Amino acid sequence: MKVVGIVAEFNPFHNGHLYLLNKAKEMFDNAIYILIMSGNFTQRAEPSILDKKSKTEIALTAGFDLVVELPFPFATASSEIFATGAICLANSLGVTDLIFGSESNDLTYLLKMVDIELNSSNFEPLVRVYLASGMNYPSARNAAFLDLTNESIKLPNDILASSYIKAIKKNNYKINVHAIKRTNDYNSNVLESDISSASSIRKALAKNENIEDQVPSYVLSYLEKIKDKVLTNEDYFKYIKYKLLTEDNEKEYPSLDRSLINKLKKNINNVSSYDELVNSVKTKNLTYRKVARGLLYYLCNYTKEKRDMMENINYIRILGLNKKGQNYLNKIKKDCSLPLISKFTREKDEMLELEYKVSLIYCLEHINATNIINDEFKAFPIRKEW
Fold first, then answer.
1. Phi and psi for 268 in degrees, rounded to 5?
2. What SS3 class is residue 360?
3. CA atoms within 13 A on the CB side of 228
4. What is d(CA 124, CA 33) in angstroms, rounded to the nearest whole number?
């Protein structure tokens, strides 16, 4: 039996996501389709406009058989850590084939670049040289690729795809990879005729523009509920400001060391928005995204110490499933390398405790806050009627 894995954020689920799933079903008829999904915050260090319960319900309606959660420390991290967590879950769940979007749609090129990264004796020394010159890691990595191959990996979906491949190869997992051509720009803020980026759909929603042609019809009712408040990092600025003004401790956070915290503390009274705060410390080699990620971890009290304690995933949290997914879990649960968790219990794992606290912070600004907290304990796993 083929078990097909897709990793996604669904922020929100749109026509491009449905296209990817339908392509997977064309390639592998009658397989098990598993979604590994981030929760209430995304890799861009932004709040998801829809909560994880809504996203799970949408995924099951779209045709996934099983939905599992990518934990917060991985879902909000750099592409390499994000991919490491996702591939760990995929392997534990018996995924045979991973399908992802790619701008290049060139697996030969992606496989070649990963092979150089893993096996060339010159690659890491070159990266270290460029890091020492002041480059950030993505730029240093690309500079090393250019030196060795005259090629680089710059586009976001190709970067993530190469990270998936790297995680599979490093761990000798038996997972086949398949690229599907991405037809839109990940960073585009403009709606296209049919398949638009999630970024452009979020911006259109915030402006109360019509997005009916951009998402499947069953997604519209979910978006209607939150159209009056489309969450952004700006909504959490006041909490970050409060912490910067009142907290005085020596903690450090991933992507946010003491010197950067001190700069933020110095600047906080001279800015009036989240965007201004990030831009006040951003530099050529300290990207907007890295600062944003550090601020999210600061807000959620996810310290470097906690990160070091949570380097590995110790469970698989089931968010939703249908009959086919349930039967598959029954088949693999005895041999699954990680315990399957269906009922949420904070005390079972420090990462689960973190997930709960992150959900509390997410709910500080969500329009449906009370229900979301209750859902964390009572709603999952969501079972599609059978």
1. -60, -35
2. helix
3. 3
4. 36
**Range(s) of the chain covered by CATH 3.40.50.620:** 3-231+311-383
Q: How far apart are CA 53 and CA 60, in angstroms?
A: 11
Helix (H, G, I), strand (E, B) or coil at 67: strand
- Which of helix, strand or coil describes residue 6? strand
pLDDT per position as a tens digit, 69-102:
999 999 999 999 999 999 999 999 999 999 999 9
CA dihedral over 325, 312, 107, 46, signed as positive or negative: positive
Q: Which secondary structure element, helix H or strand E, spans residue 30, and what is its range?
A: none
CATH class given for the domain over 3-231+311-383:
alpha beta
179 sits in which H/E element = strand 176-181
How far is C-alpha 9 from the geometric centre of its chain's CA atoms? 5
- 346/129 Cα distance (integer angstroms): 43
| Identity of residue 118 | L
110-141 burial by CB neighbour count: b if 16+ within 10 A, else e?
Answer: beebbebbeeeeebeebbeebbeeebbebbbb
Q: What is the pLDDT of residues 315-327, one digit of tens each?
A: 999 999 999 999 9
**Rounded-to-integer distance, Cα 155 and Cα 160, Å:** 9
Here the tokens at position 194 are 């049919």
- In whole angstroms, what is the distance from residue 36 CA to residue 14 CA? 16
**Helix residue ranges per DSSP H, the chain:** 15-27, 52-62, 72-75, 79-92, 107-119, 123-132, 137-149, 156-170, 198-206, 217-226, 237-246, 258-267, 274-281, 288-299, 304-309, 323-332, 350-362, 369-378
Q: Which two tokens stand for residue 1?
A: 């039996």
Instruction: Answer for the pair 324, 285: CB distance below 8 angstroms, yes or no.
Output: no
The pLDDT tens digits of the residues spanning 33-65 come to 999 999 999 999 999 999 999 999 999 999 999
